[in-house]
Records
---
Amino acid sequence: MKNLQKEELEVLQEDSSIFTANLQRRSFLQYAGAGMAGVALVAAGCKKDKTPDNMTGVTLDFKDDTGVLNYAYALEQLEAAFYMQVAANPPSDLSPTERSYFQDIQFHEIAHREFFKKALGNAAIKGLEVDFSSINFTTRAGVLGAAKTFEDLGVAAYNGAGVRIKSDANLVIAGQIVSVEARHAAYVRDLISNGSFADLSSLTGLGADNAKGLDGALTPDKVLAAAKPFIKTKINVINL
Amino acid sequence: MNIVNILDEIEKVDGEIYERLNPRRAAMKDFFNMGKKISLAAMPLALGSMFQKAYGQTNPTAVNDVLNFALTLEYLEYHFYNYAVANAPIPAGAPKNAITTIRDHELAHVNLLKGALGTNARTVLNFDNFDFTAGIFLDVFTNYQTFLKVATAFEDTGVRAYKGQAPVLKGNDVLTIALQIHSVEARHASHLRQMVAANVPGASGLKPWISLGAGGVSNDTGISQVDAVYARENTDIQAGVTITGIATGVTKAAAVESFDEFLTKAEVVTIANLFLKPAFRL
């Protein structure tokens, strides 16, 4: 108990304005969230969580399904923005069939994004500003590599978020979308290297387990940390 | 190794361990008696069995039912691919490697689900318990194209089956595992659809994702014998939201593709029973 209190102080002293530090504190709280010490920590953590959004950030509040849907909305915004940029100016070495399928994927991600926006209504977070400066959009390899990253991460994100969803309807919707993302991931992977559609041993970093035949599954803090380089807008996470 | 110490340690994280073990007092007694006779090396195994008895009981019946239902489907897929890898005319190289990869995943799923169910697992299904021709696909193991068509139907069925059962698993830790299996099946489906597109005459337009069938029908494969696998896949309304036209360029086909639909348990049972011999039907 004493040790936990000491850690709590240290952790809370960290400046939560830094996104990663914020996430580290959240994951610490998550793991510490057992017994009385956990209750005290969460209570202490909540005080800081109540700070209002600054002008540039968005807040994902995981206390209920709205937070999970907004989390999915954020990821779909990212994916849609990526494929829109590809479709607007496809690399010259992308074949006509590949272009056509990438356009399909673009509209799938736009449909997901708009679905969440509409379903969330007034509770929807605002549009995110993306940062794709690290992606080489001029070559097929650059585009496929980034697409693989986004799709595999998307699958792991939905798989990991399922346990947080409280309503049957939302859980089914998440399931309806994640399998489409997995189809995308497999397609893109096969374009990079035929036969790698479900190379689970390459996905252990996302929580996959090849020996058990399991795909990736990641908690939102880990997903957002991985997505952070591609998102300019500050994302605050509370009640995770 | 001190059993009391171990139970005390468990009690720290699970206050109900003794309560869980209590209904199994007889098993406990057996265990302690057995402890005198068995070697130290066998102790971990015996312990595992005792805790499986204690914790295996805690899954609600509905959850175990879903896991056993999934196990049946995984047996079906595993035996299908396992036989095909050795006997069907699948070209060596990438095609054979892909089917082997899929076979290995299905076996891993069988073992994982069996392990999770423990003593509650359904009876083992062997290859001989199935009829993969279903009386329709008579050349399924002698014609590569027929094999690919049936494989695609199995994978798309698997994806839809797991999706339909997710609400039963809601709030249970096994939901995550079910979702992790579900998306692997979707990856398989994506690849098999590409194999069909590359190898089956007239199917070159089949996409990795389930699209709108010709003339607006739900089955986009053009194989009418598997219509039941694709029931309602032409739906474009999700949670009351019409997806067609939700943004510029989102056609009905795009709307249909962007969301996979689920199958009810009864629908999946009807499909699975086509491939099970009468004595083994669900």
---
Amino acid sequence: MTPKTLSPLLCTIPLLPLAGAAINGFFGRKASKKAISAVALMFCGAAFAMALFIAANFSSASAPYSFNLAHWIRSGIFSVDFDFYLDQLSLVMLLVVTGVGFLIHIYSVGYMWEDDGYYRFMSYMNLFMFFMLALVLAKNYLVLFIGWEGVGLASYLLIGYWFTKDSAAAAGKKAFIVNRIGDFGFLIALFLMIKYFGSLDFTHIFTAVRTLPTESGGAGLLTAIGLLLMVGAAGKSAQIPLYVWLPDAMEGPTPVSALIHAATMVTAGVYMVARSSAIFERAPMALTVVAIVGTLTALFAATIGIAQTDIKKVLAYSTISQLGYMFMACGVGAFSAGIFHLMTHAFFKGLLFLAAGSVIHGIGGEQDMRKMGGLRVYMPWTFLTMGIATLAIAGIPPFAGFWSKDEILWRAFGASWVYWLIGVVTAFITSFYMFRLMYMTFGGEYRRAAVQELHGHDDRDKTHAARTGVSAPHGHGEPHESPWVMLAPLVALAVLSVFGGFVGYGNRFEHFLAPVFHGASEVAQETSREAGNSTLEYLLMGVSISVAGLGWLLAHLLYSRRPQLPVRIAASLGGLYRAVANKYYVDELYSVLFVKPVVDGSTEILWHDVDQGAIDATVNNSAAAARHVSDNVRYMQSGNLRSYAGWVAAGAAVVIAYMVWMGVR
Amino acid sequence: MIPLSYYLLLSGILFACGVLGFLIKRNIITIFMSIELMLNGVNLAFVAFAAHWHALAGQVFVFFVMVVAAAEAAVGLAIIIAVYRTRDTLNVDRVNLLKL
Amino acid sequence: MAGAINLLVQSHPINSALSLIVVMAALAAEYLLLGAEFVAAVQVIVYAGAIMVLFVITIMLLNAGKEERTKGSRAAILLGVPGVAIGGVLVAWTLLNRPNAEAVPIGALQGDPHAIARLLFHDFLLPFEVTSVLILIAIMGAVVLASRPEGAARGARKDEG
């Protein structure tokens, strides 16, 4: 398959889901649910099939492929076109996005079937796929930015999908606004690039960057660009300090959480950083910042995850934490390790969210883990697949997560043992809270009594109805397994979680991506050489495995053997526990520091003083003044002959005076 | 030997009287007469200048002014009669239908 | 001047008309002083003889009485009188401050009809013809404006007859 024939196919991949979104969006209101599902799945599946086809015909020798769809901006020497690009990195992302996306689309058919706005949901999901694929296949930063903004939009639409619910609408707004803050940094980076490189094209910029020296001393152009890009990535990928939108985003339906906030959108930041590896390599300070932010976020989010009781919130903080790992990897120069973890994370985190959705669906809308328990009896398939995902995320071999996480820890150790240590502690905490989730949800006895008494309340039924669109609660009191349309993707992802890690066996993955990061791999190789021989590697591997096992053990102790212990521990820790459970009050802090001053300032100053006082007043007063003037001038038109004569005489006097004056001068 | 300026002064006074009459008087006919007075004052000025500059054109112009004054008087009085028929008053303050 | 002032002062229009006739007669005398005999003659015949007669006829026809007091116009008094005063004062001041031109001798000018006629029918022929058309239009207009409406005319004749 020559590049000539392969390249045009590139632009069809994003356009297929766009067509699906348009069809469902415009015509879906009156269509039958079957038709809507068929359209959505067909276009998404077609994109996936196309991706597989391209992957099969992909050859590293003729990479990268690029395709120019249309001209866009031509302004002097600056030009940006709708260009599409495929190299190894985009291929990996492409397969992940289309594959996992397609599976989640299938799942959503089952999950959202009873919802009234079904066509809207499927349309938005396809729209998201379009933007994400545009992001991944972009050849320049501007098309990437279109995709970037577009997935933010899709995220807003989907988080606030049940828009009649205040909390959902607010969460959508929050996500979009926090994203925008990150985008601000991204945009400034783009402006810097335009100014200094005259282009936004990847090839052009990276070639130019590679001629520049490394900015070892600290601040410089590339450092600035790198830091600003990181700001954008922090917003999109929920790192400190812009992560606050992700837990709130759990207001959206679970497939949304799976697709957007686990597998794909939040990984856009990692992808962007990896794509800009050429810039970051030459800006060590920026790279260090990336690593530090990633590491701290990983630890920070993991600690919050311990104390959460909502099953989706646990997974949300887990996502933030795992993204921190990916940024840590990029920060020490191991870009391919970061992408590897991105891929495995998509598998097991997507699976975790989908399984959680299956649980929620099966017990009638309940999300609080304290009200669950013993569900392994009622939902064996969900239990099995979720268990596999938990093993993967905890980093237990031979599941996928082990390979990628271990790779990251190994590289991190090469950079600094501090990164490694924090990474290991975070791995312990991760394992702990994931198994805690498993035990609370599936272990022990079903805490039926707690569920039953809630079902007597009206608002519980209404919430359930709002979530699943049915008016009469179904299956209460008796949790049930989900339909096969929801289980099949779970199984598929479980298989990937088991075997997906073997892609990286023996550094194959890294070699595959090497042409993209050829500079970075040198940096990483140096660090690995510094780290020493393979004995050390196996030693560290053993440490991480044992740490994962310890987490499991602790969870087992606290939640299976002695379930009354956690409550006592929480009580004894008192304030600390409350702080953690309330996410360290970060949201409240932001509200006081940023939100309230802006809102108040906006209301008082901009609204009252400027808008009403100055602008409105100007317009109103000028109208009033005109009216006053005309009120007074009106008296001139009295119809009274003599007053007219008076005016004439006065005017004549003025003219005479003027003429005399002129004559005298 | 009467200086020119005296003639012009008289002309100005006549004209001013005419304007004052126009402003002060309430009877339409009297107002019209004030207009005639104004025209007369102007005529005097014309003739005076004609004599001063030895230009007969001034006197010819006086002739024309008189013609116009006659025409205007005729039409104006016809209008006054018509207004009197409809409004039944000769008071100019009452004829104020033109006001806004 | 006396006549002019009297015009202002009198309250009955007929008195004002009579004083205006006095003004015109006086002006005719002035014209004679200036040597404009033809103009003086025309003034007496046309102005005093025809126009003022017209005025007097109208006053008597409409039975105009003494002027009544109505609400005057403030603007007229406030603006007009000062305006006139200022204008008049300015003109007077200008005139009186000029170095006086040489006086005009009595009868120095040839104001005889012969010379005026020559001017009128040679140089000023066009304005002459135009004014005659103007008079024609004025006559028509006056007739139309002053005529009674059809039905009322017959009714009035019936009443009188």
---
Amino acid sequence: MVDLAELHQAILNGDAKRAVAVTELALAEHADPAELVTNYMIPAMDEVGRRFECEDYFVPELLLSARAMKGSLALLRPLLAARGTEPVGRVVIGTVKGDLHDIGKNLVASMLEGGGFEVIDLGADVSPQKFIEAVQSSGANLVCLSALLTVTMGSMKTTIEALKEAGMRDRVRVLVGGAPVTQQYADEIGADGYGINASVAVALARQMAKVA
Amino acid sequence: MHESRRRVLETIEHRQPDRVPIDFGSTGVTGVHVSCVAALRNHYGLDPRPVKVHEPYQMLGLIDEDLKQAMGIDVDGVFPRKTMFGFPAENWKPWTLNGLDVLVPEKFNTTVDANGDTLIYPEGDLSAGPSGRMPKGFHFFDTIVRQKHFDEEHLDPADNLEEFAPLTDDDLAAIVADVREAAGKGRAVIANFGGTAFGDIALVPGPFLKDPRGIRDITEWYVSTTSRRDYIHQIFSRQCEIALANLARIHERIGNTVDAVFICGTDFGTQTSSFCSVPAFRELWMPYYAQVCGWIHRHTTWKCFKHSCGSVARFYPSLIEAGFDLINPVQCSATGMEPEGLKTKYGDRLVFWGGGVDTQKTLPFGTPSEVREQVLRRCEVFAPGGGFVFNSIHNIQAGTPVANIAAMLDAVQKFNGRA
């Protein structure tokens, strides 16, 4: 019988091959997909986040763990959907208009997925209209906006204003982040939260999902 | 010796110069966006001619001699023969950037896609796929990653080494000519000969290559620094051999005509942390940095310049040990990068080439008064005893008010007792 602690360890080690192999074995043994996610994968990614916070892990380790988690999740997601298992929350995420940098956004997206969220990743250089359309079509309750550049931070404000104009601002919480972004800027543009790094972003998203 | 060069040499030898020397435009990380160069020309009442975009990736403007004098600049730069998109910065032609008339190199060939974004092509070859994109209405290019599928079992380091090659005779002749021209101006000279950047994430995707092979995706590269470390070592090791041979040939021709060499722009810092641990840095990067800096210090009087954004004070002891002398951009807003602490702890061993004013908040979004205040404070902290070249923290970005740039320069002059 497969030792499910190996799934936790494979994600922690960033070993995608092992994570997938253990997941396949577990499913062959009729393990509960939701239990795999809740009891092994989410705790593993929480530990990855903790290690990132205390600088035992850095960007490469975080990316590797996220890949391992995604490999496993790809096997589980169809089964979860078939059973009608609801995610912790639905998040629309993207780098704002004019900005093509996506490393930070990708880290946050991966950590959110690892945290049990359904993530609709719109990529980089995303217009306000695309954010609005994605919120409408997905029923997301959280929008995450990323920017690396001082010259594109303004697109965060534009996007929040567009959500207001579309009458959607009350339906979603908006979380912002990126190198030049600060709590003060988040407050100025009317965001609901500021994630100083990927780990904090997930913690905030969880808080917001509870109250959204 | 010209007073500008003497001033810089004194400060990089950690002696008190007569004034804080100023650098703008000598490297690709101490430059000014072309729109701001145009605004500065107007501000100082100079001939309003179109500005040359000499670095097309970040759209940095060439600071001509008249503007250098108006800005009080003490450093000249020597750039690699080819730009980030693989064509030389020569044979200028008109182009328009968001309504501003500029000049761009002859092979700066672009198309506009269905979204209105501008695409640029490696070596100006429109038949190759585009390697850079400038979103509509924005100000500079970012790389289009062209990662091909690769077979994990058959990764070949040679694929990631295409851009690192022995200098051709033409390359060498161009370097010699550029160095002589720069040295003739009387300012200090910093040269970027190319080839010594180990894993600079701006260069990894190969925007200058028509058909990049190997690991070219940014995420894949970061992952590889942990999961394929042997592969990266093989790349760095061969790259280092090529670089040392090129440096020897260059030195044979130019001697000690240049004062500093831009070695590497690989960023190790994020806003609050770093991209890797110090042990990982020492294992993967430091051996090659030590070889390059060691060769330079054994054979030349050149100083070694390292750029890394972000929270990188944790790496300073290793960078010093590797042989770096000049550190840039000194991002004081990042965690653990407070100016007073850096000066106290490392000021006798590192020259702070930057740190003069914050470009994430104060310079683009502050008032002229806030800019002046910060610049004066930074000069008070970094200038005593030398070891400081004034520069903003990285390039001055598009949209920065010219009044703030002028306030910054006025404040340095005031500190220098000239205003």
---
Amino acid sequence: MTVEARADRPGRTVAARNLFRDRPVIPLTVLLAVLVAVIELADPGIVNPNWVSVVVRQTVPLAILAGCQVLTMLTGGIDLSVGAVASMAGFVSATLVNGWGLPAAIAVPLAVAALAGLITGIGVGLFRVHPLIMTLGISFVVLGLSNVWQLQMVQTGAGVAPALRTLGSATLFDLVPLSFLVFVPVMLLIILSLRRTGYGRLLYAIGDNPVAARLSGAKSWQVLIVLYTISALLAGIAGLLLSGLTNTASVALADSSLLPSVAAAVIGGTSIMGGRGGYGGAIVGALILTVLSALLTVLGLPEASRQVVFGAIIVAVAAAYTRVTDQA
Amino acid sequence: MTATPARVERVHVRPADLLTSWARRNLWMLGLLALLVFLLALTKFIQPTYGAIALQGLGTSVLPLALAAVAQAIVVISGGIDLSIGSMMALTSVVAATAMDGQSEQFGVLVVAGVLFLGLVLGAINGGLVVATGVPDIVVTLAMSFVWAGSALLVRERPGGGASTWLGNLVVGPLGIDWVPKAVVVLIVIVAVIWIPISRSRFGLSTYAIGSSRLAAFRSGVPVGRTKVLAYALTGLFAALAGLSLTASTSIGSPVPGPYTLESVAAVVLGGVSLAGGRGGVFGPMVAVVILQLIGTDLTFLNVDPNIAFVAQGVILIAVLMSARVVEVWRTRA
């Protein structure tokens, strides 16, 4: 946006800015559509219902993890433990399913995840440890304990539960991924809680101005404890889906999703400083990252160049946001 | 300043007071050193054969992370954070290993100089982007970590290459007597030559100032943007040194970033540097790295699963910060 343009058409630029700031989903969807168009141009015929189904299936775990980042970033925090917690959930589930059955193989990992989140929440909320450090420390603990558990389980062996495999990779009527059916309620719950409930408002309030929130009577420590427990639970669900999608049980399964989950939230317009953002943008952000990755593969770029382009685009989008939102 | 010189003269400062106030200011550092001595004694107690050779191994193995921790400390002091340190280490390490492979020893010197310059440039790019875009440091460096890791893969797809012999000799073995690991001396010399003069210069003061309060620094006439870029460049330089130390100790370069980024953040915080910026130094983080490594060693000697050492690292990180908070609350109430 040049200076002249701003002088000539102040009304329109301001409108565009407000759109970008208040409804980031719209420009992001345009970007997504452009990417899909480019991929169709690069490889005509690739975009069909089946391809969409594959993309959605791959996006769901990332989008849930991005949800963890959105929720924590709204309060000015971040959750670096989602990778370790998600991997742990997928792995623990795979080790339990043969001996204890499916219900336990789903309930136990989620309970462990919630416990890890509870500890994180106590550290951040009550002891005021910096969220970055607290979640980092918890991720060390979870990863280490997962490895210990792995050594214990070498004899019994592990396999992803067939039900999870179906959930993670099968489709309904050959079109709608089953994991998407898990995702929809999660998505609605997050979006509606953020928009319509007092708890959602509290998250924004604490992130926007912690002092004002405290003076208005918000008990931020309670909010944070609940928040990090929810975040870890979401990470656990994402881990179960991811293990089903990839059909692997590994203690490092979701580690590579940690940084993309932060990137998806940032691209989606959530500010890491707190108080601004929403989940809708992060979902589109996660879709953009998945489609971008597919596009770079179609273009025949090696993994190395893909990473470079990936990073460059994250900086560019984040810079565009900052420019638009700061000057408006 | 309302005090006249005459009044100042009458205030007598007893040496004991000076000592206590110095100790109070360096409480964290003294605690770390005490912990280090305790751990060394404990190690010797658990494993009576622990001696000079093991100490040399310790020095070589902590060098990359210690340098990464110094790199992270500098940028954190300036009020930022650099999540691309591990990737910069991978990139500088593969560049060094690829350039030195099969070349003469003299050429190796040139490569080292070039790689250090590369580190400065990488760091300056990080800092330049942070300043120019106004995007939070953590987001920019997170994204750049992809860029640098991808570039490392472009340089070399799989681990390989070579290192000049003198470079390897620089970090392995003892210096003079057996009890002085060469790597530790190298570390201290590097930090003493680069960081100490800088931290006492105008730029060093500005770095602490922008970390402590950006606005106050700006209003006092500190060139905030320039200082930030320079701080990032310095971080890049130390990341390059860390990458070179990886190449030196393994004689190859690996394009896959190690766990150094997040471990360096942990070490910096344990080393008494405030994540909010403006407080702390680089020696605390270096000692913290050695402490974390020693705890791992001790647990191995005690026949504990090495993974528990990883857990212990996380628990210590959390416990130390929680107790620091408790002490802080207790002090303000007292």
